[in-house]
Amino acid sequence: MTIAHGIKKHLLVLSTGQHVGKTTTSLGLVAHLQERFSLEVHGTTTPKKEVAYCKPVGQQHVPVGGGLRVDKDSFLFKEHFGLVHDYKDMSPVIFPDGFTRDYIDGKVTAAELTESVRVAHRHLMDTSEFVVVEGTGHTGVGSICDINNAQVAAELGMDAICIALGGLGSSFDQLALNREMLLKHGVQLKGVILNKVDPAKLDMVQDYFSRALKRWDVPLVGCIPQLDDLSHPSMSDYSKLFHSDLISGHDAKLRYFAHVRLALAPVDSRNVFKPVPSQLVITHSGRGDVIDAILANQAEYRRRGENLHPGLIMTGWDHPSPSATSHAFTCRPRRATASNSRPRSPGSRPS
Predict the structure, then answer these.
(1) What is the CA 221 to chain-centroid distance, rounded?
(2) pTM over 0.90
(3) What is the crossing angle of helices 288-303 and 322-330, to 10°?
């Protein structure tokens, strides 16, 4: 993608449904564009205001302070990429509980919603070189409030790319339905990306799907193979989920695991804690026998020049013993450990 300096551009990222790959694709686009603009426009690796992100209509939202709630993906992009744009422009419309009823009752109008999106988009275009706009659900989501993805694209004069699940017949059928709504509103489909394609069928799917798209004169931009590892949460994900801090293994925060074990039984001569590669263990912070066994197994493997790639999540109200923490830090380059550091009330459940 060649982007000339000074030319305002934008693109709508759509998909044939939820959990198909819009956000993943948008993350990749923003990351790539930030790098391109940093290097080509400013000759530096510090991006300024060249790339913006917007989720015009959001269904799942989070509080960000000051009584403001924004779409969760807008929050993700702002935090992850350090975007400088205002939340009200990145997430102009959200659908809280009861919103569709309010719309049908006439408490909210289509003109108000459209104007909110239009104003936000104008602000982003005025302060950015490129705006990545992510749709919500499939192309028709939002129709009950007259603000579906195709209507948004038409209102803002955007072209679209569409993400579909890897396959042939059913994937093309779903794509055709979404394309019809784009055509109805005069929006051009500029390309298709297939996500989660069976690696064994990647070449075949790419060949046949490309040929099928020729009838629409739409290119197949790319095929992304199904990677099961991407669906496994990492230690960083667990840390965010439990609002906890990593106490060691910060360089392994992106480690994911093939096995998960909840360790409740005591470790003794009758119950030996056997080493299992790529295993995440969940146990109470007071279970020194379990923690010591995990650390001992990893230490033994390290002496042999090997690595178990383990992980440990400790629950409860108390921090682990100083000796366990000290030992964990000596293993820091090799393992990842998380413990909830927030104080809890006596009646609360451990994470």
Answers:
(1) 21
(2) no
(3) 20
